[in-house]
Design a protein that fits this description.
This protein has 242 residues and is of the alpha/beta class. The chain folds into two domains: 78 residues, no CATH class; 105 residues, 3-Layer(aba) Sandwich (Rossmann fold), CATH 3.40.50. 51% of the residues lie in helices and 16% in strands. It is built from twelve helices and eight strands. The protein has a six-stranded parallel β-sheet, sandwiched between helices. It has a two-stranded antiparallel ribbon with strand order 1-2. Strand 1 and strand 2 form a beta hairpin. The longest helix is centred in the C-terminal third of the chain and has 18 residues. It starts with a strand and ends with a helix. Its EC number is 2.4.1.187. Keywords: Cell wall biogenesis/degradation, Glycosyltransferase, Teichoic acid biosynthesis, Transferase. Belongs to the glycosyltransferase 26 family. TagA/TarA subfamily. This is N-acetylglucosaminyldiphosphoundecaprenol N-acetyl-beta-D-mannosaminyltransferase. Catalyzes the conversion of GlcNAc-PP-undecaprenol into ManNAc-GlcNAc-PP-undecaprenol, the first committed lipid intermediate in the de novo synthesis of teichoic acid.
Length: 242
């Protein structure tokens, strides 16, 4: 089930149900493209046709960002849980370890994906790492061959947005893995190079507050949330009045 924000669909399911849906698709031989949705992306998509196409092309649009959760609650929506990109990646790895599926890591600086893979393997000993390629590899044909030869079911792409999503859209129908997720800087987090906000901030969706405390000069960026919520309310009024 999905909700719409500015014409972009967003999944309402939590992690457990998403895992069931995605791994059912793996077993059926169906491909899945996962993209994280937050207020900034939704607002930008109203003026950026390329971004809009990326968001609409995905099979699973996960509600990453407390603003999406709040917007759903302002209406009659059913989104009750944030599904962050990095936590989605970890949930996929955990489920893959339990089910015997393997993963492929593509992107990041040389050595980062290797360190991230080691950390994931330490946490989930049964996890199968089918292959690793850093983001500096430019031989596209070589990348294709290595990915297909790996036998991986799930491919994580960390090339930064929108490059990683463009790669997935261009290649996923030709490559063998079933699941594709653009994960931005997640490899660096798993590798220990970048620290996340403390768990208490993440639990209540207050990463923005943690960043603001650490970097108060970025306060203008935090205005995006109230602007987004106002835009959602205005859109709903137009729909109700039409």
């Amino acid at each position: 089930m999905k909700e719409r924000f500015f014409g972009i669909e967003v999944n309402t399911e939590g992690y457990e149900e998403l895992m069931r849906l995605i791994f059912d698709r793996i077993h059926k031989g169906e491909k899945s493209f996962i993209v994280a949705i937050n207020p900034e992306k939704l607002m930008a998509s109203r003026k950026d046709d390329q971004l809009r196409e990326i968001l609409q092309t995905a099979d699973f649009q996960i509600p990453d960002g407390v603003g999406v959760l709040l917007a759903s609650r302002l209406g009659t929506g059913k989104i009750r849980q944030r599904v962050t990109g990095i936590d989605m990646m970890e949930a996929l790895c955990k489920t893959a370890a339990d089910s015997g599926e393997s993963i492929f890591l593509y992107g990041g600086k040389p050595g980062v994906a290797d360190t991230a893979a080691t950390a994931l393997k330490t946490k989930y000993p049964k996890l199968k790492i089918a292959g690793i390629i850093d983001g500096y590899e430019k031989d596209l044909e070589g990348i294709r061959q290595k990915v297909d030869a790996s036998g991986a079911s799930i491919m994580f792409v960390a090339l930064g947005s929108p490059k990683q999503e463009q790669f997935i859209i261009q290649e996923m129908q030709h490559l063998k893995p079933s699941v594709y997720q653009g994960v931005g800087g997640s490899f660096d987090v798993f590798a220990g190079n970048v620290k996340r906000a403390p768990a208490i901030f993440r639990r209540f969706g207050l990463e923005w507050l943690y960043r603001l405390i650490r970097e108060p000069f970025r306060w203008k960026r935090q205005l995006a949330l109230p602007k987004f919520l106002l835009a959602v309310l205005q859109e709903r009024k137009k729909i109700e009045g039409s």
